[in-house]
Amino acid sequence: MTSAAEPDAQDRPFSEDLEQWLASPGDNTLGELTTVFAEKSFAIALMLLMFTSALPVPTGGITTIFELIAIVLALQLIVGRRTFWLPKRLLHRHLGPATTEKAIPFIVRRIRWFERFARPRFASVLQQRATLSGLGVLMLVGILGSFVAPPFSGLDTLPAMGVVAIALSLILEDAVVTIIGIAIGAVGIALEIAFGSVVLSFFS
Question: Rounded to two decimals, what is the model's pTM?
Fold first, then answer.
């Protein structure tokens, strides 16, 4: 399998690397991400796990499982791990046709839209361990905000979108996308707090 880190892939858009990975004869698993995408595997895994929560559509509770895994990954990013760890059962579990044939191609189309405008800005800052840890904290807050949102309220969408945007900014190495992601996540958390205050006021 061709690694996304090989010299002939350096100038290719990330969306093409992701499509090539999907079309490869190997297993499309979370464990494969660490092999193919190296240090960006953290951001890619978090983006894939939280993208479903970022969609304003019913998901049948599958997002809860994804969010729990995302919490584990965010904690590892905070403590400074360069590649993520998960139990072998999860690492080697195939993502399934629903993800590889439907969800990820949908994600790829959205990534292409970002790639039209994104470019490396403050890339060296985004690669620093302190920055990654700080962004890990922000993503953890967004994941938790999505996790605790009342079912069918739609309040999980914006925090999840913030996490997806921050993860994408690490992939595209664009600090402007990072700021956009932080802003989206902050608005989502603020709406949840406001909603919670209204509910508490009503019952009190």
Answer: 0.83
